[in-house]
Known about the structure:
By secondary structure, chain A is of the alpha+beta class.
Amino acid sequence: MKLITAVIKPFKLDEVREALSEVGVKGITVTEVKGFGRQKGHTELYRGAEYVVDFLPKVKIEVGVDDAQLDGAIDAINKAAKTGKIGDGKIFVTTLEQAIRIRTGESGSDAL
Amino acid sequence: MENHIYELQYAIDTFYFLVCGALVMWMAAGFSMLEAGLVRAKNTTEILTKNVALFAVSCIMYLVCGYAIMYGGEIFLSGIGQVDADAVLGEFAEREDGFRGGSIYAGASDFFFQVVFVATAMSIVSGAVAERMKLWSFLLFAVVMTGFIYPMEGAWTWGGNAVFGMYTLGDLGFSDFAGSGIVHMAGAAAALAGVLLLGPRKGKYSADGKVQPIPGANLPLATLGTFILWMGWFGFNGGSVLKLGDISNSASVAMVFLNTNTAAAGGLVAALATARLLFGKADLTMALNGALAGLVVITAEPSTPTALTATLFGVAGGILVVFSILLLDKLKIDDPVGAISVHGTCGLLGLLVVPLTNSGSTFSGQLIGAATIFVWVFGASLIVWGILKAIMGIRVTEEEEYEGVDIAECGLEAYPEFTNS
């Protein structure tokens, strides 16, 4: 099992959710986050003076997937979140040791 | 029959005065909203407290002694409510130009109209010193400003008295219809003196001299405040015609409304365009300041310019205010709402353009009048602020400023569910 953590542009969230549903992902966790990457921040203007906003708002989604689903899910996020412009975000994949569904006590891939 | 007509004229002119006074009173709401919008959320309760309290203090102090200093009469307004109807009708009969002669109205309505102007002048100060001044030092200053400093210069101008017995501004060709100088520049002069002694907000200017913007918390409120001021200004300038009850005066009132409105429009468009050209963006707060700048400029003489001239006066104010705000920031004079630029710089411009359309005034008279008002109000304010600073301090501590003066001064946050420190 793998945990996919993707940081994407907030306005792409709906498209990513739909794309993941299509490849059979049953659930995702979404968090509003702030951060910076190579895009750095951006500048804003108030009464003629510019100032830098260091951390930009992004959405972080976390998806637990079976190994067989991994490539499809990554591909789905990649396609749906891509604008081709700076600041599209990143996808991280980590090994997931265990997953448990609290209601039924199922574990492993069955719990995803 | 003639007496009945006179009674009606008295009634309509008194009524007009009262309605205009109520409109100007509403400007206090405009200033409150504008200032609440342009400060940070953590300083909202305090700026609102300042605005309501300064209005009340102004009304009481002008009643106690301000009106007596400015226009003569008794302190505490004693006797102002007594009207002898027959004597008033006698005054009407003696007027040289009859029905079209000078306006005669209730003394109490005159006080009501004048008192809201004092509050306007004081409101200008609160925005400039926002986010860092101690509440009670500010209110003590308000007592002196509205009970003494403003009434003194008011006595020299609208009151017709000689300046310390030396010269009379009216004889020199000074004319300020509704108070570009007497109200607005005076308020800005007091604000400037306070800001110079107070210093900029922490973090506004970096060590290398760059401006660090401190964005206002609520631009919808700032916009609403500007519209309220714009509306109140019809009373401010329109009421200053002093009479409605004959053809030429009511036509003059109509022209004043028209010019006041168009100057604000010109100021807004000019400031918006200037900001767009200078910064590449349509800066809302500059546009709002532009509308107010146009209003301040036209206030010195809204009755004689043509509609086109009034618009151009507003445009000049709208352009000037943007550069004035940038200049003050270069000089590290921190004015969170732009009050000194809007009311001071543009108030001066308003005085100086009066002779272009009003042949009864002179440039020299306008300059001497502006200098007299500025030197007196700035100097007297500097002394009062200085005394307050020495006795009780005028600035909150650095820690209180960081946490917000809402908690430090009022113990209450404006948006307790949204800000948590």
